[in-house]
Amino acid sequence: MKRTIAFFAGFAVAVAVLFLFKSLFIKADDTKSIPVATPSNSTPKKVSNMKLGAFSVSLSVKDLSVSKAFYEKLGFTVLGGGMDKHFLIMKNENALIGLFQGMFQGNILTFNPGWDENAKNIEAFEDVRSIQGKLKADGIKLTAEADEKTTGPASLMLADPDGNVIYIDQHR
C-alpha cells in the first residue's frame, strides 16, 4: 500500500513539474547495440539499447467520469488517484493509463526508469542521466533536463517529430 501511495505521489509531483517547467545499473548484456533502419544510401547506424522503465500514457480528458466509464468497459480498473483529485491511474494487465482532467493539454508518453508497471523497484535499471547523455549525444533536443550533478530522482522531457511530449521520470 505504501508503494502505491508513493507511486501516485511521485506521479502527481511529476505532473506538477510539467506545469512549471546514479549511476548506470545495467548488465553487460544490456549494452549491446541494435541496428536502426536508415536510408538505402547510407550505412546502418548503431543505437544503444536504452532501458526506459515502466510505460504509461497520460491522457488529458474533458470529463473524468465519462472517460473512467469508457476505459472500464475496455477492462481497465482504477489503480490510484481519485475523482476528487481530478486524475485516475487505471490498469489493464501490464497497460497503464493516467486520466487527467484540467491538469495539462495534450497527451504525454511517460517512462519510469527503475520501476515496473506496478510501481515496484526493479534491481537493474538505467539512470535517467545516462539516458539523457545518450539522447544528447545522438542530437536529440531536450525541452527539460535532469541535473547531471545529482543522483536519485530526476526527470527529462522531449518531443517526438510530431510534437508528442515524452516524459522520462525517475523516482529513485
Write up what this structure looks like:
The protein has 172 residues and is α+β, with helices and mostly antiparallel strands. It has a single domain (2-21, 51-170), classed as 2,3-Dihydroxybiphenyl 1,2-Dioxygenase, domain 1 (Roll). It is 23% helix and 32% strand. It has three helices and ten strands, in the order H-E-E-E-H-E-E-E-E-H-E-E-E. The strands form two sheets. Strands 4-5-6-3-7-10-9-8 form an eight-stranded mixed β-sheet, with helices on both faces. Strands 1-2 form a two-stranded antiparallel ribbon. The longest helix has 19 residues, at 2-20. The model is unreliable at 4-40 (pLDDT under 50).
Report on the biggest sheet: 8 strands, mixed
Number of strands: 10
Radius of gyration: 17 Å
CATH architecture: Roll
What is the H level of CATH, i.e. the homologous superfamily? 2,3-Dihydroxybiphenyl 1,2-Dioxygenase, domain 1
From the structure above, extract its key features:
172 residues, alpha+beta, 2,3-Dihydroxybiphenyl 1,2-Dioxygenase, domain 1, eight-stranded mixed beta sheet, two-stranded antiparallel sheet, 10 strands, globular
Summarize the entry for a quick read.
The protein has 172 residues and is α+β, with helices and mostly antiparallel strands.
